[in-house]
Amino acid sequence: EEMPVYDGGDKALMEFIYSNIEYPQAAKENGKEGRVILRFAVMYDGTVDHVQVIRSVDPDLDREAVRVVSMLGGWKPGYQGGKPVNVWYSVPVTFQLK
What we know:
The chain is an alpha+beta fold. It is about 30% helix and about 35% strand.
């Protein structure tokens, strides 16, 4: 009924992700870039668990995206019937060389 919300909204969520991403050196050297799509559960207590790559780009980029998303906290959980519940959530993480 009610989806989870990151503290500060989607803009704050993306700012957190991109301020914590460290482009893997091997991926830089090999010119790897692209969009990793992750799926994770926002748990009933507002934590993140079960982070999974659903669209891969490169193993190094995938690992970095999972590392950063696993650090996320500060979620308002989803609600069903007035009770907090676990909800799957997806987010893209774009890696682009400049």
